[in-house]
Amino acid sequence: MADEGEVRGTAEAKETKGMGSGVIVGVIVGIGLFMLTIQFLYMAK
Amino acid sequence: MAHEVLDKLWMEDRIFANTIKQPVVRGITDIILAFAVFMALWWVFMDPRGYLRWYTPQYGYMYIRWLLIVAIWQAYIFNFWPFKLGWMEKTHPLQKGLILIGINFAITGLLVWVFYYNIFGRLAIPYFSWPELHKTGLSDFFSREYSSLAILMMAAIASWLSPIWPSAFENYPWHGLKQPAKGFTVFAVTFLLTTYAYFIFMHPHYRVLFYPWQEYTAAFPWWYESFRTLSGNFNVGWIMCATVSVWLTETIMERYPFRLVKSQPWRGIAGFAFILLLAWILFFTFVFMQDIVWGVSVEGAKRIMAPDWRYLHTGELAVILLAVALTLYFYFDNWPRKFSTEVNLLIRVAITIVGAVILHWAYYKWSPGLLGTQAGYSHPQQFPMAPVILFINVMLYHNWFMDGWPGRRIAKVSE
Amino acid sequence: MKDDFSRRSFIKGMAVGTLAGYFGAAGLSSTVFKEQLLPEEKLNQVDIGEIKGLKIKVISETSWYDNNVWLNDVKKSGGLLVNQYEIPWTVEGVKAGYQGSNLGGFATYIEATLMDDKVVKIQLDTGWNPAWMEKRFREEGHAEALAKKGIDFMVLSHEHIDHFFGIEATTKFYPDIPVYVPKGFYQEGFDLLKGKSFPKANVKNDYPHKGKVTVLDSSKVNVLYPGIALMTFDVPIILRVFGEQSFVFNVKDKGLVLVTGCCHQGVISYMEEVRKKVKGGEKIYAVQGGLHISPFEDWDPQYDDLILAFNKYGVQKIGCNHCTGFITAEKMIKAGLPIVKGTGRHMTKRDIYLGNGDELAIA
Predict the structure, then answer these.
(1) pTM metric for this prediction
(2) N or C terminus: which one in chain C shows less Cβ crowding within 10 Å?
(3) How many domains does chain C have?
């Protein structure tokens, strides 16, 4: 029982770690995509 | 992680059997069918070359907006009361559709012609009534247009506020009531809020609409200093964005992220705040985009350079976004659904944005021929929201009232 | 197993982050960082030259006589998007009208004295009701000038009924008068010039135009003579019309004078475009013509925006009339704008602004 709990705990910890860095990368990508959108609009002027 | 579900709509429990099995074929067939019905309705009621020619534009747009909010009340607020849910499940979609659409049209007609024109407009505020305004000496044409704007704005605000209750609040705290008590309560509370919101956001427009200014009865447009226009179009713009936000969050976004909030009323409050934040992001972003492409708007200018038209146009752009999102949701099963919620959302939002760019291009290219409109982005008697929302109404009739027939049927309704 | 979990979460996180980043960037750029991100405005001014002096005579600015009759004609037909060639305009039984017809028309006569003292004689627009227009042409000596080919050319500001449907009143006297039209004229417009009739709309042309027709577009400022230019605006207009062109005159020692038919592009937009494209455009000396603000004595808060903004442009003379609207004129006068008064003659209802037969001279 204790072993299972440990495995689950570790897995959950890994899950959160992946999520955090994913969000950071995603935010950068998102900002970049929006800047690209603005570039298209500059060209559409 | 599952929260306690306080309330559900009957529509959420429908399980479908596809008559047309291939999803892309079914989706395209559905679009063609909905578009054909839309074109028929447009020709009969709205087209300036057509039969009744109500697109002037506010008069026709008024009916279109009321058909929408009445449909929302029928399906979302009253959960199809007085019809028994067993009847809803078993009746043929064509029969159901004709009856529910008939009721939709009838209630809209009664609200406009009996309530607004002859009760509220006659006994309370004349600018809500076409005949009452005409009696003051205003021209017949403008009496109809001015009163239509007021009436439709009540519908527009209601279509932002009413669905928030079943969607974000799950009808809390009235989730335990049975219909029609639940429906009447949610309707009454949201329509009360709508009324106050109308008077704060739209009524000042009517102070300056008449000559001389109606100084005793309406406040000065309080947004003038910051937003450089006396016109209520400033509020029309972001409110239209809010009506779109409600439905974006309800459909392609699956009520994410506020559904992560575990209990009510906090989930509802988070939902309301998120919907408003999204509305304002859409609003300011669309203004910004127009400023980039057409140059910054000029105070006092007309048409495409007018600040107030730019604000209005944000709503037009938002509704184009919504039409694509709803097409994806209703006709392509809210694709994709196989990844995690977050990834599904990202893909759907990306499809919606790309689709909206395409629809925007197609609309402005083909609407003169198809809809009888004039070419150009900004025209004094044109309002793309009218045809686009009419198309959305057709999709709602098709999917809410008729279960998406003939492409699919209800197999059963889950418990 | 361990890698799968973290990759899956990473991707989920990326999805959330991308959405948040995109919409967050949208929200911030469009508000907090808006000033820094908007592209700079580019001025591209053309020197159009100068003239010595300008005389503007209002031949007719009364396009129709009864607003309610006009609006009912439009409403019955289905509103302001309906094609003007298909609306049965009321030509009889109107008490306030001319010989029972609700139709009048808009036309202006302009004399521009060039720097070498040559006088260029221009007719702007040709009205609506040919009978009314001919009466006014004769009363002002304009019919005689046309018959002697004493008018150098005619400019059609836009294709509207009240500026163009009276074409036979001009071509009767001078069938081969050179004509400038703005880009946007529909085929019906060219057909009417050539003599086609549209019985549904009660319009005909028994004197087909035989002269040169030049179409001017919005790609540049069109300089006709030194000091005399036309600018075309790609503006969608009611009743299935598109495009309007308006004059820019540069009067020596005074400045730019803008003369319009209806100014459907909007007078503020017009002044802004002139500022960007014509040398000296920062200061407009005078504006004359229809400004299309409250033509039906209707109102909209946007028109109050216009009146409040107009003061900032420092225009010295506003010779507005026709589709400007009386309510607009009253509000403008109250706001301290310099509206040129008229005399209220020849069926112009009020003297609040330049009316039929009134003149504005700038020298």
Answers:
(1) 0.92
(2) N
(3) 2
